[in-house]
Amino acid sequence: MRMMTFAKRCTKEILRDPLNLAFGLGFPLVLLFLLSAIQANVPVSLFEINKLTPGITIFGLSFMTLFSATLVAKDRESALLQRLYTTPLTGLDFIMGYMLPILPIALGQTIICYLAALPLGLTFSVNIIYAVIGIIPMAVFNIALGLLCGSLLGVKQVGGICGALLTNLSAWLSGVWFDLNLVGGFFEKIANALPFLHAVEMEKALFNGDFEIAASHILPVLAYGVVTSMIAVFCFLRQMKKQ
Amino acid sequence: MQEIKTTELVKRYKDITAVDKLNLDIGQGELFSLLGVNGAGKTTTIKMLTCLTKPTAGDAFVGGKSITKEPKLVKEMIGVSPQETAVAPNLSVKENLELICGIHGFSKEKTKERIEKLSAQFSLDEVLKRKAGKLSGGWQRRVSIAMALISEPQILFLDEPTLGLDVIARHELWDVIRTLKGKITIILTTHYMEEAEALSDRIGIMRSGSLLAVGTVEELNRKAGTDDFETAFVSIVKEGAL
């Protein structure tokens, strides 16, 4: 009950921020339309909609990090958290209250991306449902990363690190815009060591109904999700005690 | 009857002693002000009493419950309005009040009843549907105190409630605080002399983490040998406990 009250409040705070809506929902859709328009005007296969859409949905999740990090950092700076720490809310209530509301937002964003891609030529199949569900582990990673950053950084730093750095990392190291095999070397090794590429490959495989390939990529994504969540919980509780 | 009792309460941050062996007794229904210059230890004392930070040594009993051993029980009987604005900015005033009711596990009926009562008490009707973040500083403070009171606390902590407010907003907030006097125990921190003088039953003067003097305005004036409270405060702070 207490946790759900706090979660409801967090949902309202996120959804009522026009910048969140513009970036979280608008930006992935703009990219989808823009790159599809480019594809329609070039003779080679650069941004095929069936490959592009799963990639965009994973890229869009990087905004969930920005949402959760900004919310936590703002609450810390505004002293609202200080007030709430003097109430019967527990550490678990806070953590789940911050994380839970963003998951449906991530799922909603993914569904909208797939729906918007259908008129652009995306193949319609039942696999879209699996692909939508398949974003959950990566969404958990992104939300936990936000909680971690929000617990450690201020609002301005969060904007720079989660808004600019992470979205770029997610874009360049995920293989959404170009084939990482073409770059190879150290760059490809780094991409393989991080979860972004695996999440995109898993999403593409789920969309294509290739569950074996999807299963081969799930482990690194899950591992990043679990480890980041644990560190985020530790750092949040630590800053809570520091109050 | 004692509502708050601290025994040798200490808070140290590395080499700095923010609160040093504080012994304080505050009675039920009393409005007690902690007065001091910046860095006197007022906010740290409030933070310990509201279970935001643990004492390095000593203990305090709030409503008879230990802040070190029973923080959960303490949190159920207190309301806190922090020094800075502590409202959810994108939520309406009503939603802010509902948030606190929900956190304290109130039913829908009780939430409605409490919001109606607090709206009338704090004249919040005209701003109830407006976003809290869009209100003026004075209104935000008013909402902040209403949020602290909506859970029907036994003890209310007001940390610098009028800091940064203009003179009209300050006097309006004083009127609100006066309506609460005697009904619940209020602990107020301030560094405005006139605020402590206008509102308090008793005042504790702090400096460098220590409590220098405690008493009514008249008692403190007498102690310092003056009729003017500001002069009395300066004398006490400059010369220690006199």
**How big a fraction of the residues of chain B is strand?**
25-35%
Q: In CATH's first tier, which class of the largest domain in chain B applies?
A: Alpha Beta
Helix content of chain B: 25-40%
- What would you call the structural class of chain A? mainly alpha
Give the overall shape of chain A. Answer: globular
Provide the helix percentage of chain A. over 70%
Instruction: Count all strands of chain A and give the number.
Output: 0
User: How many domains of chain B?
Assistant: 2
Task: Please tally the β strands of chain B and state the result.
Answer: 10
- Tally of domains of chain A: 1
Number of helices of chain B: 9
Report the β-strand fraction of chain A as a percent range: under 5%
Poorly predicted sequence stretches spanning 5 or more consecutive residues of chain A: none
Taking the alpha carbons of the first and last residues of chain A, their distance comes to 25 Å
Which fold name fills CATH's third level, the topology of the largest domain in chain B?
Rossmann fold
Radius of gyration of chain A, in angstroms, nearest whole number: 18 Å
